[in-house]
Write a structure and sequence with these properties.
homodimer, 478 residues, alpha+beta, BirA Bifunctional Protein, domain 2, Rossmann fold, Translation Initiation Factor IF3
């Protein structure tokens, strides 16, 4: 039995989801506040998840031809100012560097909130001919936005992310790349993080500052709130015109490039916590679990127990599994609780009697199931179970999402759903920002996206009753 | 034959080494200047080298128990000010953020030039008991120092690095870790970058601001100048006392921790260029070459040539080798030059006659040797050659270093060596900073380190003639 003391240290999800989240982040030692206001520290357990996300997402980028680069973290004010919508969107929330080496700067610079302007400035010189296209660049870095509130992984003044920036010869190619990267994100979320997402387009009100079109993947958290989990933007030639990024095409005429950008952040870790976690703590999908299997010896002082645990650990390591033995002097019950709190997908229990009988017990973190396993079959059974856990977590998350996705034909229906059984609300929209604003004002819900898979729920806008143009996913969001 | 035009675009090393370096960096497309003063962009070919350095160095760190974390990029002024020597060393060269989101900050913050103060602030809360020790943390990030000059990879206002920060229960353990990480660096340089290094201790004049002892690895560039390639610092309990980092030891008394930090930067890429490069461009050690083998088809329009090239590429990929085919419409000679300029370790030449005879030609970048290879043996022969190249590059670099390491007993001797055949000069030193200052003033040479392997070159200081305490490596440095 797991020791209850550790678990009691976290608030129950039903009681206070926000507090549950903070407790889990703290008790699982993922992240902590710092004395730098608005900034967080990624502790080893939290950063290791990010490393696993990075390496697997990066491999998917590279398969599509993307190359990594690194651009400066500073943006001179004149550069930020070049694209009108972009500067309006970002200037109010940047940090300004005004002094360098004790002397005031001639021109102040902001710490990048995003790097479109820097990439444009770079592409302007780097692109001359159609032969130089496409440029498919990405960078992993941190960015700064001067937020007022801080929530671990979800919102902080500095956060880690990747930002892809591409330049193409044609509008079609740019649109294709925008959708391609959205699909990379969606597949990654489902296959690696076990988080099902809705793919769609943002309304003009919600799109990125400077974009022609913003596409998004939206996920539903356990508490029924939505989380924007990745976005992909098509800039058309707007930035190219503002920055003068031209190339000589095959027909020997000078043309503007078409650009895209796309990003995901450490928010994904927050999403994973809020989609899969439970009252015992974190539940990690095996593909991003820094430790996939924790071996916990029972009666470890008895002869041969620690030695057997160590040898099982070696065997699993050789089979390519991320595994550890907890041979500390805590009680097994306490160790169980810790393993559960940290979301380690699988536990191996091994004691003197098991050793005698040539078996061990495997306990799944996701559903609590325990099975006996012959020691001969340890590697295969462990690999099978990890694969099942990964698969089942997605199935469960999808079922939860679907069970909390509703349709509404009237404002009253929508309001009632959001107030009683929060989730995604599918409802029709006339296309006017006025209605979006009203829905936000009345029920604190925003348009999450106009999904690619449209349904005709009714013929009229849920808000104004005028003819409907689009079905929209609405929700209260993080 | 390689096409000469591309090569002619770079200055010869003998003529102007500094210009040769800049030309190679530019022509091999590693890095470029930006319109952000003092900041560089890592282009794909340059960043890919850094990724290979990161992954292999990171694995070595983790083998010693180090965990990765991420701390904020900002340091509030009051935090930077806590350790007296440290702030004196760094405050004059930091960038200050004074405004966030359009409002002046209550307290200005600098962008981290290094993160000792942030780690201390974190450890202060995170360490309570001897059970929490040691802490073995590292982070990969960028840091900012307001330099006046910029040289690609060697010096820029923002650069990429890793910084390890550890906390220990005893002074002995901290010293052990300091030396252990220096050894990790030295082994990495020799085994991965094929750069031989001298390990030693910095004089007090040259040590890190706030350190009790700084250890260094020093490498010799092709032009005879020295490059500090990695440093490891023992802080004793100085920072712990300034920040109040205490723990309850096993004997139930409160003690200060002992700390270390250690770092390497993208300078390592500069070192690699300047140690191995030649008049045809870059020469990359196979272990950090993003492309290890370039397959260049000859008469590629003839039937079967491109198909064969592609199938050889597939075979090498399957064998775990990083390989590409250059099937562009440039001439083979031009492709040879490009492959050489980019430092790709091995070239496979394959044409219609080769295919008929079931063979190809393998050309080594490091020494220009060409061998025929039966297509049946492609994988084994390629792997063998890559291993030989890696090994031979270190041997060659060590021979060059040794041939340019001299001893001097007088100032005149030292001056003559530095002015005619630059390199490391081993000479005795009395231990007084006065003599270090004088040597620097007279011949622009600095003490690189007091090597672990001491020799007794004479009994008296090369500068003042007083009794000698240490043999020192002197040199002109980057």
């Amino acid at each position: 039995m797991a020791d209850k003391k550790l678990v009691e240290a976290i608030t129950s999800m039903e009681e206070d989801f926000a507090q549950w989240y903070t407790d889990v982040v703290k008790k699982a030692e993922l992240m902590d506040y710092t004395s730098v206001k608005g900034c967080m520290v990624f502790k080893p357990a939290g950063y290791a998840i990010w490393e696993l996300i990075q390496s697997q997402m990066d491999a998917r980028f590279k398969e599509t031809g993307v190359e990594n680069v690194y651009l400066p973290m500073f943006i001179p004010e004149s550069l930020l100012n070049k694209e009108k919508d972009h500067v309006e969107g970002f200037a109010p929330e940047v940090a300004w560097v005004t002094h360098g080496g004790n002397a005031p700067l001639q021109e102040r610079m902001c710490v990048r909130p995003t790097s479109e302007t820097l990439f444009c400035d770079f592409y302007k010189n780097d692109i001359q001919s159609y032969r130089d296209l496409p440029k498919l660049y990405n960078q992993w870095c941190s960015v700064v936005r001067w937020e007022k509130e801080t929530r671990p992984f979800l919102r902080s003044r500095e956060f880690l992310w990747q930002e892809g920036h591409t330049a193409h010869a044609t509008a079609e190619e740019a649109e294709e790349r925008t959708i391609q990267m959205l699909n990379v994100y969606a597949d990654f979320c489902e296959e690696v993080l076990a988080i099902p997402v809705i793919k769609g387009r943002k309304t003009d009100k919600e799109k990125f500052a400077g974009a022609e079109a913003t596409y998004t993947i939206e996920a539903l958290m356990h508490d029924g709130k939505a989380l924007q989990s990745g976005t992909s933007h098509n800039f058309g030639d707007g930035f190219a015109k503002a920055f003068g990024i031209q190339f000589t095409d095959k027909d020997n005429t000078l043309k503007y490039v078409h650009q895209t950008s796309w990003g995901t952040t450490t928010r994904l870790i927050g999403a994973m916590i809020m989609v899969h976690g439970d009252d015992s703590g974190l539940v990690l999908p095996p593909k991003v679990a820094p430790v996939q299997v924790m071996i916990i010896p029972i009666q470890q002082k008895k002869e041969g127990v620690l030695e057997t645990a160590a040898s099982l650990c070696d065997r699993l390591k050789k089979a390519g599994i991320r595994v550890k033995v907890d041979d500390s002097d805590k009680s097994p019950g306490w160790k169980f609780s810790e393993q559960e709190m940290r979301g380690i997908p699988l536990r191996v229990e091994i004691g003197p009697r098991d050793i005698e009988e040539g078996k061990c017990v495997l306990a799944r973190r996701d559903n609590g199931e325990k099975v006996e396993c012959s020691l001969d079959e340890l590697e295969t059974k462990t690999a099978e179970l990890l694969a099942s856990i990964q698969k089942d977590m997605l199935v469960r998350a999808r079922a939860h999402r679907d069970a909390h996705t509703y349709t509404a034909k009237t404002m009253d229906e929508m309001q009632k759903i959001l107030d009683t059984t929060p989730g995604f609300v599918k409802a029709m929209w006339c296309g006017e920002q006025e209605c979006e604003d009203k829905i936000k004002e009345v029920m604190s819900a925003t348009s999450r996206c106009m999904p690619f898979e449209q349904e005709q729920i009714s013929d009229v806008c849920v808000c104004c009753g005028r003819p409907a143009k689009k079905m929209v996913y609405w929700g209260r969001a993080y």
